[in-house]
Amino acid sequence: DGIRRRDFIDIAAVSAAGVGGLAVLYPLISQMAPSKDVLAASTTEVDVSAIQPGQAIKAVFRKQPLFVRRLTPAEVQAANATPVGALRDPQTLAERTEEGHEDMLVTMGVCTHLGCVPLGAAEGEVKGEFGGYFCPCHGSHYDTAGRIRKGPAPTNLEVPEYTFTSDTTIQVG
Ligand code: FES
């Protein structure tokens, strides 16, 4: 009789530990995969008033780097002079920017190859052979519209959903 009681106690202790383990695991999983509602609610406001033509700033959107760049007239021209049909991921600058704000390029700062952060947003960083961004990990070159032009990246730098909420502010997300 004494032995049977001990068995019961051991089994009870094991199942309590099992439940505890599950309770700890759940918040970890839900943190790794935020629900669509949570994602939809997370937006980023960026003040673009201080960005001079030819300059960019790095911000953060949904925990990832975001580049906001004001193109010079020459950079806009270079992007528009490129035959779209020759591009790996054919898109015009107009399709990648908001109407009336073609000089404001908003992209994720995440290389579409394996996710490194490309160079070219901060002062003095190399911009690659096409004058936009350069990913040093495996040598992807992006042009002044953030489009892939050379190297292993399959697609253009992603343009997140954004809108101008005033002449000087954009809301991303
Ligand atoms: Fe950018 Fe490979 S991660 S080129």
Automatic annotation (TrEMBL):
PROSITE patterns for the chain: RIESKE, TAT
Keyword terms, alphabetized: 2Fe-2S, Cell membrane, Disulfide bond, Electron transport, Iron, Iron-sulfur, Membrane, Metal-binding, Translocase, Transmembrane, Transmembrane helix, Transport
Transmembrane parts of this sequence: 8-29
Domain Rieske: 73-171
Cofactors demanded by this protein: [2Fe-2S] cluster
Family annotation (Gene3D superfamilies): Rieske [2Fe-2S] iron-sulphur domain (2.102.10.10), Single helix bin (1.20.5.510)
Pfam families: Rieske, UCR_Fe-S_N
Keyword Iron-sulfur carried by entry: yes
Reaction(s) the record says it catalyses: a quinol + 2 Fe(III)-[cytochrome c](out) = a quinone + 2 Fe(II)-[cytochrome c](out) + 2 H(+)(out)
InterPro entries: Rieske_2Fe-2S, Rieske_2Fe-2S_sf, Rieske_Fe-S_prot, Rieske_Fe-S_prot_C, TAT_signal, Ubiq_cytC_Rdtase_Fe-S_su_TAT, Ubiquinol_cyt_c_Rdtase_Fe-S-su
UniProt-listed CDD domains: Rieske_cytochrome_bc1
Coiled-coil blocks: none
Localization (cell): Cell membrane
Membrane topology: Single-pass membrane protein
Enzyme class: translocase
Family statement drawn from the similarity comment of this UniProt entry: Belongs to the Rieske iron-sulfur protein family.
Subunit (UniProt): The main subunits of complex b-c1 are: cytochrome b, cytochrome c1 and the Rieske protein.
Additional notes on this entry: The Rieske protein is a high potential 2Fe-2S protein.
Record's protein name: Ubiquinol-cytochrome c reductase iron-sulfur subunit
Lineage: Bacteria, Pseudomonadati, Pseudomonadota, Alphaproteobacteria, Sphingomonadales
